[in-house]
Amino acid sequence: MDVLFLFRIREHQEEMLKKEFPEIHFLFDRKPDDPALETSEVIVTYGADIDENVLDRAKNLKWIMVASAGVEQMPLGRIRERGIPVTNVRGIHKTPMAETMLAHILAYRKKLGVVYEQQDRSEWNQKIRGTELLDSKALILGPGAIGSEIGRLLQAFGVRTYGCNRSGRQAEHMDEMISFGGLVDTLPEMDTVISVLPSTPETRGLLGHEHFGAMKDSALFLNFGRGDLYEEKVLIEALENGRPAAAVLDVFETEPLPADSPLWKMENVTVSPHVSSHSGRYIERSLDIFMPNLRAYLDGSIDEMENRVDPERGY
Question: How many domains would you assign to the chain?
Fold first, then answer.
């Protein structure tokens, strides 16, 4: 049985897999045009390199393991038609991403950018007025594994957390919950607005002029989910009008962000090049999900595999 990895992992991780699964022929660091694609039962990928041409050639394919949370770049319709199970690594990003978001929030509220700029100028100026997180309110769009973790960290700072999802169903580390329909009414109360929503038919273009216009003129907006949550020109106009006050963006409509994008030059925008999930433990955590799933696959217990993706919903 062939298992094809479309990316590189470390040598000791390769040896670990070979030792744990001696009956499997692993092919590491291959490309989608590798001839082994046609015989492999399992493909391990970051997702973006799986297109309809790859699916047509992968005639023996019976499971796709995506070492990412998002699967929106994959031909989900064709995958559904062929009945190929898809799993992802949902949940492994929560620690690095929540830590990164918290760092950006604290840097903004404590005016650390101003501190760093003054140091560059050798300037001693104590007229820096930061604000506290204590007793503030944060709205988290998409309180899943990542959203709940940033909620937990913010609650430790005395922040009241509001979760927002499709159903309004309760989520961990959220003091209150709303559904998408309650956004406009809730946004005027929020000091921090965070999105970690995936890209789905329900979330694409979810935020419009009325949502940004409803935000406080002191609010910080962070998007660490997907760049199609809104039209970028709508956000730029909102930031120019002062609602929200500032934005930290890790995802964009087009990536890499074009050099001529106005976002690069805006003083109230922090551009993060989609790196919030980066961690030296990324592959390690991915394999922690892949290995039990591979055992379940070999045992014929596909229904028991963790992190199954619904191709119709996109997550």
Answer: 2
